[in-house]
Amino acid sequence: LMVMYYYDAYGDTSLFRYGDSCANFVADSILPLDTEYPLYNLVHCFVTAFVSGALAEYGEFRGDDFLIERAESLGIRAKNFAEENPDTALGMEIWAMSPGTVIWGILRSYFSHHSDELNDWISEYIDIYVPDMAEPATTFDPYIWDNAWNVWYANGYRALAGFTGDSSWFAKYINLVNYLLAQDTDMDGGIPASAAHGDTMDMSWITTYLVFMGIEGVWDSLYSYDVGASKLFFIDDSMPFHTADDTLHLVFSVANFGNDSVPDVNITITCENDTIFESADSFPIGYSHCETLSWSPDTAGTLKILLDVHSDCDYFPDDDTISMSIFITPIRAVSGHLIGFSGDTTCGKIEFYTMFDSTAPYATIETDSIHRTFYASLPEITYRLRIEPEFPNPVIWRDSVNISAISGDWNILLPAPDILLVQDDGGDYGEYFSAPMESIGVKFSIWNRERGELTSDIVAPFQMKTILWFTGDVETSTLTSDDKNFLADFIDGGGKLILTGQYIAEDISGSDFWNDYISADVCGSGEATYLHDIWGIHKIVATAGNGSALNQVSIDWMVPPDDAEIWIVKNLLETDTNVVAFGRNFYGSGKILFSSLGFEGIGKIGVSTLQETRKELFQKFVEWFDTAAISDENLEKMPQNISISAFPNPFNDRCLIAIRSGENIGTMEILDIRGNLVYRQNRDGTRTNFVWKPDENTSSGIFFIRVNCRENNAFSKIIYLK
Q1: pLDDT per residue over 480-493, tens digit each?
Q2: Fewer CB within 10 Å: N-end or C-end of the chain?
């Protein structure tokens, strides 16, 4: 194409041999359209269509029948692929191309010889699958090139107008060219690759795209008087949902698209017929105006925003309006009680986590101390709840709680606890023990030893009859005489004890409790960055790195009794004389697992999968104590990797979703921001690809892809811009 343009401009034939060489090279380079990678196939289809159109034009220019025939052959390949995969080839953008590339290419290469088939093909494919344009990006992403995609859409519509004589295609073409030209707000002759990139990121390649595929066709067709709207979008991304009275920021842009000044231009922005902005101005040649408004909606639901630019002398009103929709999430007042496992109401705290942020709660509420009632006003979305009630009720999580479905008194029933955590460390390391218990689904309650001594009544509700007792950095009086007497009775009665702390052995070795239940010889103590868990599959246990309390300075090395099951050792070559943790099973009575390593010190150095996390170690302990006492749904297996990718994202018409999993995929669901099921599909196998196209009643907004496998599930966020 460059050789043709160069000859038209200068009459110079010196580049013909170069053009012939390029044409013959691409004519002989056939890209595969059936690889195992769907995105590669899509790129190859777009390139094949581009090449077919370029070869057709160059073949006609040079009078080369071989190039014309090869162009038609390539056009048929691209056309067949598009017909087999219309959701992607005619509905998605990728790389620097869009479905406009396919349209332009096969029009030039194939339909120029089969014009009788064109109208049916437009009705069956283009009218159904091809969007009007790529929606402008609202956040910076160096790999989103919506302006490049829209140049190709414009070029495709220009070709359709030329082949069909239908002026509506030309109007679409003109609108897109005007929209793209309006992005040169600093009037320097360049535009960026994306509407979100700004004037400081103008790029020569996208500007050249616009010249030879956009402006070239309108040099002589600009209206004298033509003002219009070019942009309308929100830039509020700090929260993925909005409620009434939130302050939102609406960006709009208007421009003079004609070749003369336009007086008395009225700009109006309305929301459901209520005016939220209006102004009047004169637009000189080349004028464009971009402004950001602060606006607070006063009602919930799906709201339509309309930007209208009007002048009595405007020759081309088709580009005068832009509209968009935004969903304002309703607020619901809820109240209720926490019902303990005994059937009585209890006090406590509830944390509400959204699906967009699992690290910090969106809201936290507490029951009042008199009526034990909680009250909250919350956006009607889906939450994950962390409930921390009074002792002895356990800390629990509740998934997928849809606030919009709650009516009347909301009573949250609490189960009986499984394990009792005894915090006897002065209050420093509770989170290091509670977090992994929560992550493996074990229901636990915490007893702070400072509250008083343990009794059999306190331990009675715990279903697994298990205590995890940790002493942290306490060096003396790690266990009092009363503590040791209680634990002896507890084990004799069938109880199961995990006892962990770096100074316990030094403090209580030689006592009756030590001799009867732990019965190990202490050989020495010190520090060690790496230890070895040899129970089951060998794993490395690090005492530093990410997640470690970095407090392990006096780990004891022990020789356990002959009946012990050795868990953690210092040296793999001496697994019976430098033991750090071991278990004993008093058949007919209880079990004890003792560790001179404080579990709060476990961390992870680097990303090696050979290192054991605290969560993995705790899961082993729970399984060893009583695998039958906790159901599979609570005691989750180690997660398999689940990968979810969506392209494009954000999208305005449809997106390609690819799922890869380490286990068999069960169902794939798409949920809206309120947790309502929008789409569901049963899948089979560990790999799947599909295209989701929201129906016309689906509003713009945030959606979630949820993949449900037998053992695990995973979420991924997608954004639909209508």
Answers
A1: 999 999 999 999 98
A2: N
